[in-house]
Amino acid sequence: xxxxxxxxxxxxxxxxxxxxxxxxxxxxxxxxxxxxxxxxxxxxxxxxxxxxxxxxxxxxxxxxxxxxxxxxxxxxxxxxxxxxxxxxxxxxxxxxxxxxxxxxxxxxxxxxxxxxxxxxxxxxxxxxxxxxxxxxxxxxxxxxxxxxxxxxxxxxxxxxxxxxxxxxxxxxxxxxxxxxxxxxxxxxxxxxxxxxxxxxxxxxxxxxxxxxxxxxxxxxxxxxxxxxxxxxxxxxxxxxxxxxxxxxxxxxxxxxxxxxxxxxxxxxxxxxxxxxxxxxxxxxxxxxxxxxxxxxxxxxxxxxxxxxxxxxxxxxxxxxxxxxxxxxxxxxxxxxxxxxxxxxxxxxxxxxxxxxxxxxxxxxxxxxxxxxxxxxxxxxxxxxxxxxxxxxxxxxxxxxxxxxxxxxxxxxxxxxxxxxxxxxxxxxxxxxxxxxxxxxxxxxxxxxxxxxxxxxxxxxxxxx
Length: 464
Ligand SMILES: *Cc1c(COP(=O)(O)O)cnc(C)c1O
Known about the structure:
Blueprint: H1 21-24, H2 39-50, H3 70-78, H4 91-107, E1 118-121, H5 124-145, E2 154-157, H6 162-170, E3 174-177, H7 189-195, E4 200-204, H8 218-232, E5 238-241, H9 249-252, E6 265-271, E7 283-287, E8 299-303, E9 306-310, H10 320-357, E10 361-365, E11 373-378, H11 388-396, E12 403-406, E13 415-420, H12 427-446, H13 453-459
Parallel strand pairs: 2-3, 2-4, 5-6
Antiparallel strand pairs: 1-7, 6-7, 8-9, 10-11, 11-13, 12-13
The chain binds pyridoxal-5'-phosphate.
The site of pyridoxal-5'-phosphate (PLP) has 14 residues, from helix 5.
C-alpha cells in the first residue's frame, strides 16, 4: 500500500479532530460560511452540539416514538431518496402506503376495509386537517342541497390538541370546545348536545386526551347523536382523533367500542410516529367507507396506466416512515403490538401506584384504562416545599423529562404532572425514575423553595 505524504493543502485531515483548525474556531451560526469544510469534521462537531438535546429515552413528556429497531434505521437509510408524492417513480412505496391504510381500516373495523380510502400524512395534525376538511365539504354539500346557508360551520370537540384549533382557524370553522370542569375533565354526550345545531360539521372525540391520557367516550357520544337524529333528523358525523389510542386500544383494550363499529364514526386519525412505533413523520387518516371522503378533495395522479387518488396538504414528503410503518405492522403483528403496549401500560400503572404511596400526590389518571402513563397533582393543603414545576426541574438534572402544566379552561388552576410510557421503557427504568423522584422530594424537604405569589397560584404550592 502506498503511503502518501501529507501535502500542505490537505494536511489538516490527518490531525486529531479537535486539533484541526475548524474545531478550534467558532462555527458559523447565523450566516453561511464562504468556504467548504471537511464533511466528517462538520458532522462530528454537529453531533457534539446535539448532545445538549435531551436524552430521548428519558423523555417521559412526549407521545412520540424514539426507540426503533436497527432494521428501521437500515430501511430509512435505503429509502432516503423515495418521495411519497411521486407515485409514478416509486409505485411500490405507494403500494406499501396503501397496504398500511387497509390494515388500519381493518384494525379499526371498517365494514369494507379492503375498499375504503385513507392516506398517510406527516402526523396526526395533517390528518386532522384532512379529516376536518372532509367533514366541512360533506356538510356544505348537504346544506347546499337543502338550499341553506353555508357560511357558519362549527365543530364540537372536548379539550383538544392544538391541531383542532389550527384546523378551525385555518379553515374558518367555529370551534365549540367543551371546557373541562373540576368534576368533569372530558367531553360528555350532554355537553355535546348542548352545542350541536344544523351548522355542526362534526363532533371530534379524542381517544387519548393530551392532558389526562384518558379516552373520551365515543360510543356514548355516538348513541346520543343517534337519539338526536331520531328526534330531529339532524345527522351529525363523528371523526375520532385517535392520535395515540388508535394504536393502543385495538391490541389491549379490544372491548372498548370507539371505532368504525359505530356507524356514525366516519373517519379516524392516528399518529404512526406515536404508538404506531414508527419514526417521526408519519400519521394516518382513514375513512369508514369510500363515499365518506368527498370526491372534490381528491386529486388524481396517473401512473403506470393506473389511477392513484391523493389527498394531502404537502407535496413532496419522505417515504421511509411509511415503509417503516409497514415493517412494524408485519414485524410485530398483533401479538407483538399487544405485548409492547401491555408492557407500557403495566409500567404506567406501577408508576401511578408508587407515586400514590408517596402520600403527597392525588392521582388524576391511574394508568389503567387508556394510554400507558400516569398523571398526578399535589394534594390540596400539603406543603412539600416545592411545586410541580420545581419537581420537573429537579428531575431534569438527572435527565428525566416530565411534563408539568396547568390544565386548559375551565381548570387552569389545576397543575398536573404527567408521564407517558413508551416502547423502550422497562421496569428497571421505572424503578430508577421512582428513586430519583423520591430523592428529589427529599431534597426539597431539606431545601424548600419559596415562591412569589403568582408562582404559588400556578404551582399549587402553599406556604405553611
Ligand atoms: C399528538 C396529537 C396530535 C398531533 O399529532 P402529531 O402527530 O404530533 O401531528 C393530535 N391529537 C392528539 C390527541 C395528539 O395526541
